[in-house]
Amino acid sequence: MALLVLGIALLLLVVSVRLMRGRDLPVYAQTLLRGKAHYLCAGILLGVGFSSDLEGTHVLQHAQISLMSLLILWLGLELGIQMEFRMLKKIPARLLIFGAAQSAVTFLLTLTITVFFLPRLARHLLEGADPFVLASMLSVAASVTAPWAQEPPRHPPVAPETDAYPPPHIPGNAVSILLFGCISTLLIDHPPISIANRVFFQSTDALFLSAAIGAGTGILLDTALRVEPAPVKAGYLTVALTAAAGGLCVALDLPALFVGLLAGGWLMNVTLRRRDVQTFSERIHPVMESLFLLVAGSMIGVRTSDSPLNVQGMASLAMLLFVSRAIARTLGVGLLWRLLGPSSADRPFAGTWLLPQGSLAIAVCVQPLFVAWEGPMQAVTIIGGTAIAVALSQAVVSTFPRSSA
Amino acid sequence: MRNLILFTCVVALAVLIQRGPSPVVEPTCYVGLLSVLAYFAGKLCQRLGLPVETGYVGVGVAARGFGVLPGRLFTMFDPLVAMALGWIGFGIGCEVGGMRDRWRPSHLSLALFGTLLPCLCAGLILKTLAGLPLAVALALGVAASLSGPVLTFVAPDHLPETTLVTVLCSGVSLLLYAPLTTMSGATLPFLLGVGGACGVALLWAETLVRVEPSLKADTPLIVLLLSMVILLPWTSALLGHSLFLTSLLAGLLTSWRAGLQPRLRRISAPVGRGAGALLLAAFGVQIAIERLPDLPKEVWGIAAIYLGGMIGGKLLGGALVRGQAHPYGRLAGIALLPQGLLLLEIDTQVRQRADLFGGAADTIHAVLTVAALVGSLALPLLDHLLRRVTMTASENYLDRP
């Protein structure tokens, strides 16, 4: 069965590549491809195909979980690497506040809408899960944005110019992930964490432990970069330390995105090799992001073998997330825009509210997979619903005129 | 000083997270830590004038011996090791395929001599001196004939031709495994294995070749290669063929198209070097050093004969091709390249088909463990010395009018 799926998948890949070569795709399909939705689909297909054989071979199962821990931390690290204070200072203070506040407002408004409608639309999702925690996670997923709508990919990848204007979505995403870190540690009931004969019971302990691991990883990464001048070996050390921290986060049920954000932020603001870090990050991030979506898709695919797919729940969750996000962002950004009243010179920020979601939103919902979501179908429905909402946000944004986006 | 601080931090972290009522057993965490330790061990060896691969294997052995890694984790490294082996095999295949313009009949003759003679030499000596059955003696002979292209790939200062010849040697060695299975009447599994390896390799190569022109960015190609590396161990386990042989063939067939080779090499080489360090460290972890004192004396005797037969046979093979006035013929040291994880692959295959060898499967396993330890730590030193001598000899040869 699995071999058949593999053969069909490869055949489809070859045929689709042949068919698409030289053809103009519709705009929404182009934006979906740019958002790497095809990796998610390929992952689901592979997961479904191999689910029957996964019980016998532990190879792929271990690889799936191990890879995911590394990849989630990388997404956080990548965001942290963009948090260079020297660059952020270039942004006018009121716009910085605007960028951060629009995420917080989107989070709060989405939370309000989701808490009200979630028990009515997707009651089955709440079995064994705290509705407020679920709504909070979905709201965080709604408040993060993807940078790709404004930045076309560059081939070959290069480090950004030193005097370039930092992308406007960064402060907002950072606020969202900080919120996510607090929710993951303070609201979700954790089993006791033990490190070096010390047992941590309190949620605040988990928060401080996450912050400590994040800062520690940042320090180790900085030291590693000072030790090794060769870029390839420095990259090897970076990936190795990222894997170590990611594995630690999965083992201790700590939010890897939050840890990665702190580690990346520390590294970028302390290191002497900013340009090397940026170049390396620019080279490796597309691969990591694609792999993340592939593995996330395969996790959905594998779990669907246990019980039938809850299409209705997934669709209702996706619609709830999509609509509530649209309302929250429109209202929130409009309100903030009026309050702060930026000048016409701040045009790069004008379309921030139209930015779609990306892989970071899916990572927010995948991260608590082993802690908060009880059954496999609950996890599949939540991740699948978020993925559909992300795809919708990407497809819809392409229909707006280029000038407004 | 910074090296020491980072090294101490990593070791302390590895030890600390194992303490307490619920120690951390997540493989990714230890893989990351082991990779960092391997880096430092390689760097230390480089400063001491030793080959880096000795450091990589040594740190794995030490990590197991000193309890830096938890015991229950040793088998959990298998998937990552398998993926690393698949990637390296593919990278070596690409490299060798890219050198096809340099292929000469003398390379094949060198590979054949360098493989057949150690196999026969070690096998016959083991049969005569240790009184082992012919199938068992030849199984050890095949293991003895393996060379270590993995190490050649990791060490960038090797001659490219050395890589080519060692890859050919390993290919011949892996194919030599055929008579062992056919001798016991198990022709079908062997044919299925070889057929499966060729089929899977051809499938991947054809996919890569057809899809690659449409993939302008490197990212999708890397993801496709990684998918291949993740899926290869699974297909090899399912069809019972050699993972390394399959990935090697896939790389060879893919890079046969001239336009593809530079791009694949650019992608696979940096990852391959990192994967090589991890692979060798994980290989060191898999050597059960704590069980060595409990081994019976006969096993040590057989292991000594095995190593003697291996080195003697390979030197003999190298000496025979010297007559061709070939600069690489002087590189009898190809014979001394440590065998790396390929040895464990043969060991795995022997254990999987233990019925073919009767009660001797355990003996083979013990002998191969000893040989792996000695071969990985001592032979690189010997190889290093010999390489320096032979490199000088080759340079003199090339410089002469």
UniProtKB/TrEMBL annotation, chain A:
It comes from the Bacteria. The chain crosses the membrane at residues 63-83, 95-119, 170-188, 200-221, 241-263, 284-302, 314-337, 349-373, 379-400. Keywords: Membrane, Transmembrane, Transmembrane helix. The keyword Transmembrane applies. This is Cation/H+ exchanger domain-containing protein.
Automatic annotation (TrEMBL), chain B:
It comes from the Bacteria. InterPro entries: Na+/solute_symporter_sf (IPR038770). Keywords: Membrane, Transmembrane, Transmembrane helix. The chain crosses the membrane at residues 76-96, 108-126, 132-155, 162-180, 186-205, 217-235, 241-259, 271-289, 301-321, 328-344, 364-382. This is Cation/H+ exchanger domain-containing protein. It comes from Handelsmanbacteria sp. (strain RIFCSPLOWO2_12_FULL_64_10).
